[in-house]
Amino acid sequence: MSGGLHEHTLPSVLEELSRARANHTAYIDGAARITYSEALERAHRLANAWRKLGVGPGDRVLWLAQNSYRIVEGVCAASLIGAMFCPANWRQTAEEMAFVIDDFSPKVVIWQDEEIGEAVRGARGIARRSGATWIQHDGPDEYEALLTSADASRVERAIDAAGPTLVVYTAAFAGVPNGAMLSQRAILTQSLVVQFVQHLTPGSVFLNSGPMFHVGTLMTTFAVFTQGGTNVFVRRTDAEQLCQVIHQERCTFAFLMMKVCEDIVRLNKDGRYDLKCLTSPAFFPEWDAMVTINPRDTRNTAYGYGQTEVNGLVTWTFYGAPGDKGVSGRSAPGTQVRIFDPDDKEVTDGQVGEIVVRGPTVMCGYWNRDELNAERQRNGWHHTNDLGRRETDGSLSFVGPKTQMIKSGAENIYPAEVEGCLRRHAAVADAAIIGIPDPVFTQSVKAIVQLREGSACAPADLIEHCRAHLASYKKPRIVEFIDALPRTKLGAIDYKALDERFGGGNYPGQAWQTAQRA
């Protein structure tokens, strides 16, 4: 493998691990157990197979499937040839997947038939762009046949660690999602921080139980990988399977939401699975008794502020100190965080403004979004579109998004996307989406709809309309009708008035509303 004196790339890390930890298990995925030496060979085979299919520098490979070790393998192969690899949200509808296919314009699409095949085939039929090679990775397993028949020789080329390798589509802030392009440098830098904060070692066994189209899972996946630990993969979250895998593989760490923890406790009430190998923050007594709890001051209980565009967290409570005023901790090594006013001037401590970031973990930009990139990366800073505050002791507080956001479980839902879908219904003149408190999922989606004059429509019809065009978790659970939506003096929808009238609330960082009005 070619490389300069200071080369540090994903392939060079994997190359070293294939020597230093050749026989250590890198991936566990069902019956598949792959060592680091095997992982290196497979990455080169896959890169050579893709090159034969016409994938070169700057080209794109799209993953339309659930969690798998092949996502990590795909990122490594893409990094060898200067391509980009995107694990898309498999929970999307056919229409949403088709948008990503058209927007990303991949040379190769790797897809899964089990559970999501209908949506994937529907997306393939709707998508306008053609010419991609489609490879099924389950069932007949065209993927493995392609890989094993490919040349195993090393790919020799100069690798730009600062160029885009991993693409993760964000939620639809302004009505459509955008593909954040993350570099190998971003992945490797964040991995060093995560290893330290989460106390990861070569003996760590990470259960990839969170969706791998989110950086919340991926930043730990790559931290464990580059440390030479073991990544365990499950296709999706299922409480019984998670119990079995934790018990059998002795997983030490996992990406788990509170509801999943509650499901595990109910299922494992009789203690049939030994989960003591799993370290976790303290959540509630029944869970705490089932796993191994870390004291609050250990490295496994860190939180902070971040987003997809900066490859995860850029501030961590781990770097804070007892008594910090800021709820989001302090910035990580190598990261610069500032709070700017609307004129891009830094505000004084204690004032609310936009969080801006720069450093090696910041994205290269959004794929195919030149105007948006110019706006979000102006003056040498990444503008997050989030509000925050630098406290007088130097710590940081995330206040909330500049635009209204609804949090349902682990998913972010942006009203603009759901409103746009509702407005496409023939009976709808206008619509607004608010979040109402939900005891299980933090918030539920409520639609406030203004019908066209002379039109009639049942709430169930509008919910079904959204379900047909959007991922199910985005659809309204409740629809209420209004003669005319309230407006602010500037003509924008008055969400505050809607919240007060229709029971909206429990927004993440709800102080954003106060900050905007101040």
UniProtKB/TrEMBL annotation:
Family matches, as InterPro entries: AMP-bd_C (IPR025110), AMP-bd_C_sf (IPR045851), AMP-dep_synth/lig_dom (IPR000873), ANL_N_sf (IPR042099)
| Chain ranges of the AMP-binding enzyme C-terminal domain | 417-491
| Alphabetized UniProt keyword annotations | Ligase
- Keyword Ligase on entry: yes
BP-aspect Gene Ontology terms: fatty acid metabolic process
Pfam families linked: AMP-binding, AMP-binding_C
Q: Which residues form the AMP-dependent synthetase/ligase domain?
A: 18-367
Write down the top EC class of this protein. Answer: ligase
The beginning of the lineage is:
Bacteria, Pseudomonadati, Pseudomonadota, Alphaproteobacteria, Caulobacterales
The catalytic activity of this protein is classed by the Enzyme Commission as 6.2.1.-
Q: What is this protein called?
A: Putative sulfoacetate--CoA ligase
What the record says about family reads: Belongs to the ATP-dependent AMP-binding enzyme family.
Q: Name one GO molecular function term.
A: medium-chain fatty acid-CoA ligase activity
